[in-house]
Design brief:
430 residues; alpha/beta; 7-stranded mixed β-sheet; 5-stranded parallel β-sheet; 18 strands; binds zinc ion
Length: 430
């Protein structure tokens, strides 16, 4: 599969760091970010690369050549076949793809040359093939969803709505943001829009929302743009700490599993309405600390209100949308939420009898942790379960994980601070 990398953009907001080099040549620990991208692709078998270049293109072409040489930074072979499309006038970020139609005869990767990423691309491509359609977006939660575009999808991953930053958004929403990595069908580029420049998001992809031809692939892997000096500095620090590489799902992940009611949000008994979802003091700060540690932050919660017929799955989604919105406003995010909808005791009016079972996922049983471990390649023995109830710690111990009991109902932040001290969390696993 060919990887097309857009390496032509100007870096206006980051000009204070790099005035005379193009953004794709910004160094991350001494190696250009574009070379880091190529190495990530090459190591997974993606060796056919097309670079679209424009702004300051000579420095890129002179550095990489046709990919058969050695890296000036590392002395190692690039190990790729690199070809270029040179824009003589700005065509927008999708304009070049129409000129490259002859080269793009099957589905291809389209990546952004000034973002740092370390992603299991074969897993991404497999998801695209499984879901079908003309395009799949790589999506993830980020720490500023309130000023990011949002992707709204159904349970099967079909994108139903694409909201740009400017669009009006629902009051409560899932933190799901387009990361700028795509698998695309060349069929999208058969007829060129009649504009001098073509914008990929607005003119090609956004109109596919709701047609069944556009899907999203949610992943917690590391993808960050470096559009401002602050973000660039953060990316460099994460790279140095090993977090960028560690989060590739080919590697075993580590997680902090969090109970929900009484740990993250106020305990109100059975929580049935979004209005009743309120964060406990310090909860967002604690989760932000987990996010920054490189551990996954995953909620596992017993929600027998579903089996009791008191809350529908749609209503529970809305409650979780509120949780994600509130966390996002404070710069924190969850990598996933798992819930057990079951309850063992039958015989109450209004109940959903097929959910009244003795399941494997209701804590203290470890079913949700086992499912998450399968979904995200998690090493449970290196993971933690955090809650204020013995049922939580029992479910963690049942899978060989370690546990932290939150001692008071406002205690998540102090528990996470203790956790961070205990487990030298800032050292990623190899
Ligand atoms: Zn269950």
């Amino acid at each position: 599969m060919i990887a097309v990398i857009i390496a032509g953009g100007k870096g206006t907001r980051i000009a204070s760091i790099a005035k005379d080099i193009p953004k794709p040549m910004l160094p991350i620990e001494g190696v250009p970010v574009l070379e880091r991208e190529l190495e990530c692709l090459r190591s997974q078998g993606f060796t056919d690369v097309l670079l679209t270049v424009g702004h300051l293109k000579d420095s890129i072409i002179n550095y990489f050549g046709d990919g058969s040489g050695l890296s000036p930074a590392t002395g190692k072979p690039f190990g790729a076949r690199i070809d270029y499309f040179e824009e003589t006038e700005p065509l927008g970020n999708a304009g070049a793809l129409y000129e490259l139609r002859d080269r793009l005869t099957e589905d291809f990767l389209l990546l952004n040359g000034d973002a740092i990423f370390d992603v299991d691309f074969n897993r991404f491509v497999d998801a695209h093939r499984r879901m079908g359609g003309l395009a799949t977006l790589f999506t993830h939660p980020n720490n500023h969803p309130y000023d990011s575009g949002l992707i709204i999808a159904d349970k099967g991953g079909a994108v139903v709505e694409w909201l740009t930053k400017e669009d009006e958004r629902p009051r409560w929403y899932k933190n799901r943001v387009n990361a700028g990595l795509h698998v695309l069908s060349p069929k999208l580029f058969e007829v060129r829009p009649d504009t001098p420049k073509v914008d990929l998001d607005r003119q090609i992809l956004k109109p596919l929302a709701g047609t069944g031809e556009l899907h999203c692939y949610d992943s917690p892997e590391y993808v960050k743009d470096m559009g401002t000096p602050e973000r660039y500095a953060a990316v460099c620090a994460d790279f140095k700490a090993g977090i960028v590489n560690a989060k590739n799902l080919r590697n075993k992940q580590r997680a902090v599993f969090l109970d929900r009611d009484g740990t993250i949000n106020k305990y109100v008994g059975f929580l049935r309405e979004p209005e009743e979802m309120e964060l406990l003091p310090g909860a967002a700060e604690a989760i932000k600390r987990i996010n920054e540690s490189g551990y996954l932050a995953i909620v596992v919660t017993n929600q027998p209100v579903i089996a009791r017929g008191e809350v529908t799955v749609e209503q529970l989604d809305e409650i979780h949308n509120k949780l994600e919105t509130l966390l996002g406003q404070e710069g924190a995010y969850l990598d996933a939420i798992y819930y057990c909808p079951h309850h063992p005791d039958k015989g109450f009016p209004g109940e959903i009898s097929e959910l009244k079972i003795d399941c494997d996922c209701r804590k203290p049983k470890p079913g949700m942790l086992l499912k998450a471990a399968e979904d995200f390649n998690i090493d449970l023995s290196q993971s933690w379960m955090v809650g204020y109830d013995e049922r939580d710690t029992e479910s963690g111990k049942a899978v060989g994980g370690r546990t932290v009991l939150v001692e008071s109902k406002n205690g998540l932040l102090s528990a996470i601070n203790r956790w961070a001290d205990d487990c030298n969390s800032f050292q990623p696993s190899e």
